[in-house]
Amino acid sequence: MYGKAFAPEYRGALGALSVNSSLEEVLDKAVAQRQEAERAGSALDAAHAGLAVAEASRRLGRIEEAERAWKASYRSARRAGDQGAMAWAVWSGGTLARQRGDLALARRWLAIAAELAKHGGDVVARGYSLAGLAETGRIQGDYQAVGELHEKLLAEARRRGEARHTVWALEGIAQMHRNTGSYDTALEMFEEAAAIAEKADDARGHAWALRGIADVLSLRGETGRALELLARAERTCREMRLVSALAYNHKMRGNVLFRAGRYEEARETYAGALEEFRAMGEPRGTALAGLGLVKARARLGRDTAETAADLDELDRTLGGLGLLHAREMVAKARAELGVSA
């Protein structure tokens, strides 16, 4: 039903790159291809190569390089008069904005990308842009607004047999079910995503699905199994140099250890994840790892007033980012720890 996963963001001369190519390899080849395209005066080839530079840099946590690369890709695509290539560049910019915590800007860029893709007749770019809008809304916790779009994109991906996009949609919907307490449904969808990703050789999607499965198993008290799955996912993240995914994996390991009452281990793990997120300038991950760290320290006997002050600061930070579900997590932490605002 599903073909082998492919990476449509690797375009033109870079189209032969695998979805599982290491990001360092992608970056090296993309930089070389961009230089060659610029020497040859091929604006479209430069746009394609610049997109790959932007995406590899973003996933490696090299934010400033990614910012420069997607804008340069857009300028090259505009010179070439190719709206599809313009759409892909703006999609990359919107994805980067979401990673940096600027969700309003992410929605703006992704909406523009969807329109450019529509006018340029690039169905895949439009699908990725709409998926980006759906994911941005999901991260904010606005499930009612984006749930239907997730389901629509899942149906389209299934119909076209696009394994990578099917996996993404399944994981997004599963996350919403998990966050609203429908653990059985969430587990089924994460497991389906993992199976599809594994058969389609989508290592990145498989790693994210394993993280989701581990989360739900941990909520059921299956700590050992959850940690085993996270260890498997971590190996993939390290092999592909998925810096952001690795940090989120570590943050989830902290969650699993915290739920098991292993507070000192959780504290150390959250602290490590916090530094990883700070190093890549990812405010959402920084705040979530920080919340875990505050909770672990509180369980280890930290002063209540200091804990309350930290939770207040996190609440303001998450509110500024527009993360509704994460703010609910702060409220639950207050109740769990017996700390007033």
From TrEMBL:
Q: Which SUPFAM superfamilies match?
A: TPR-like (SSF48452)
Q: Which residues form a coiled coil?
A: none
Top-level taxon = Bacteria
Pfam families linked to this entry:
TPR_12
What protein name is recorded for this chain? Tetratricopeptide repeat protein
